[in-house]
């Protein structure tokens, strides 16, 4: 450790104390974690879960373990890359909530790191804002002291993660649990990014279960077949507790964000999306749009620009209650691409384009545009009136990772 000069203490935990330090040789700033207990054999050091897991994982959104140092006095030090702060401090210092775009950027990185971790056979078990480190716009998962291999045999440790981010199956002392506990924690962190307050701030395990029931409602009792303390949950749910509308608790979140949180924070671990499935959720694609091709598919089209398109919009109920339809729709004829600045210009084209605009709750920054005209195989469009059909149909059982509203979008262009 003579190569490192400790500058200041950054934090003190159960297993060790973290310092900001500088490498005397190359002046690189690093983070040094000094373990509190002594290690008398090198085999003990390399078999630590934190060391084993980080040695197997290399990802831009997972903290990098640079070096492990064992001193003559049997003190053990981990040398990590340095990050400026953690997500908890970032939220604590903010006066206003994060924008949805900021949240999308942070969660994309965390889920990518988490997906890499799960693919490599580990789950974290202690995801919380304090263990998500941030420098500028980059966020990384850290503190793998409670990480466990997916192949390890149950029963697992009862106590994992900080209480506010602990999944129900852990609170109910289920002897087996899966990486779905990480996904629950991500859902709780995501909700907190919108409100800057924990969504389930329980003061004890029983209060934690009560806080969850107060928002999600009473669970299906068959979800946790091997839980050991049903009595605690039974005491809370002696009467029917109905779920609340998450949109009322997180009013500044979009419908897509609320839907993703509700999926991640599902009582049933099997209904929570994996990290890879969560990344496919519409929340991460709200601001995307599909541009027109770079080439001009209508360069040799016949003259038919004066004909008016026949638009047919069909919207069926996708919930039992008509008031639950939240999606605002609008159809527009675009007289010129330059007016909307949508996509590259196409030389020589006098065509009028038809666009479908999904403009949820009048937020133009969340609009998605699709061109509804498709060229023929030879690159031209016949001089006939296009008939466009846009339909939403009900979906009884939506797959994991898609909105629970069950809206299935179907676009078709027919020519007569």
From TrEMBL:
Classification via SUPFAM superfamilies: Protein kinase-like (PK-like)
Keywords recorded for this protein, A-Z: ATP-binding, Kinase, Nucleotide-binding, Phosphoprotein, Serine/threonine-protein kinase, Transferase
Gene designation per UniProt: LOC110703417
Protein family (similarity comment): Belongs to the protein kinase superfamily. CMGC Ser/Thr protein kinase family. CDC2/CDKX subfamily.
GO MF annotation list: ATP binding; cyclin-dependent protein serine/threonine kinase activity
Cross-referenced SMART domains: S_TKc (SM00220)
Protein's name in the database: cyclin-dependent kinase
Residues in Protein kinase domain copies: 4-284
